[in-house]
Design brief:
- This protein has about 240 residues and is of the alpha/beta class.
- The chain has 2 domains: about 150 residues, P-loop containing nucleotide triphosphate hydrolases (Rossmann fold, 3-Layer(aba) Sandwich), CATH 3.40.50; about 70 residues, no CATH class.
- The chain contains 10 helices and 10 strands.
- The strands form 2 sheets. A 6-stranded mixed sheet has the order 6-7-8-3-9-10, sandwiched between helices. It has a 4-stranded antiparallel sheet with strand order 2-1-4-5, with helices on one face.
- α3 runs parallel beside α6.
- The radius of gyration is 17 Å and the shape is globular.
- It starts with a strand and ends in a 5-residue tail after the last helix.
Length: about 240
């Protein structure tokens, strides 16, 4: 579904992503793990043309490397950004409708609003509430729901559990599984490497802008180097 070849991202003199190759198969969950500053977010932002890049990004067989972000979203890629970035002065409903701004199918949009509300009943209860008044967990639900409103084939998620209470982290991963079961392919960046690897079909380890390890989620869960660096000791 997604093929990345020789991707490079630079910020001035900083070479944030260093010629990486990676792919995401349709119907899979792929996770990208690594320390802060490893280049994970820059990789996702490069896919959506939110940062300047060199290299090739292909989606569903089409080279999208030079397409503007709007056209890439139209083709079926959406992202839940790190830090949620909801529109604080708009209601839950208005935030969700902004997620559907590229769509013209009014009936489909109505159905997807109900789908998002079925995933997150709390959003339905508070649909007229301003997003800025929601808790961190509720804002994360809204950010995910907003991304789903473009009906993506590929959903990229950047640190969806960051800053959430442990009880909410489990809920986030339950929702990720449920979205995946609905047929959405997922590319996940997640600080909770153990939980990410448990649900991932395939995983990449990114260190200082380069991919240093790859394998199935289960293989990397058992890898001693990954255990020491990202899983806090013995598995």
């Amino acid at each position: 579904m997604l093929e990345i070849k020789n991707l490079n991202v630079r910020y001035g003199g900083i070479h944030a992503v260093r010629g990486i190759d990676m792919s995401v198969k349709e119907g899979s969950i792929v996770t990208l793990i690594g320390a802060n500053g490893a280049g994970k977010s820059s990789t996702l932002r490069a896919v959506l043309s939110l940062v300047k890049k060199t290299g090739t990004v292909s989606f569903m067989g089409e080279d999208i490397s030079r397409l503007p972000t709007r056209e890439i979203v139209k083709r079926g890629i959406s992202m839940v950004p790190e830090g949620r970035r909801v529109f604080a002065d708009l209601t839950i409903f208005e935030n969700l409708m902004l997620g559907a701004y590229i769509r013209k199918d009014e009936e489909g949009v109505k159905k997807d609003i109900e789908w998002v509300y079925s995933l997150f009943p709390r959003l339905k209860e508070r649909e007229k509430q301003l997003a800025g008044t929601l808790s961190g967990g509720e804002q994360q639900m809204l950010a995910v729901g907003r991304a789903l409103m473009s009906r993506p084939k590929l959903l990229m998620m950047d640190e969806p559990s960051l800053g959430l209470a442990p009880i909410l982290v489990g809920e986030v991963f339950r929702i990720i599984r449920k979205i995946h079961e609905e047929g959405v392919t997922i590319l996940l960046i997640e600080q909770n490497a153990r939980m990410a690897l448990k649900i991932a079909d395939y995983a990449y380890v990114l260190e200082t802008g380069a991919i240093t390890l790859t394998g199935s989620g289960q293989e990397l869960l058992r890898n001693e180097r990954v255990t020491r660096a990202y899983l806090g000791g013995a598995t």
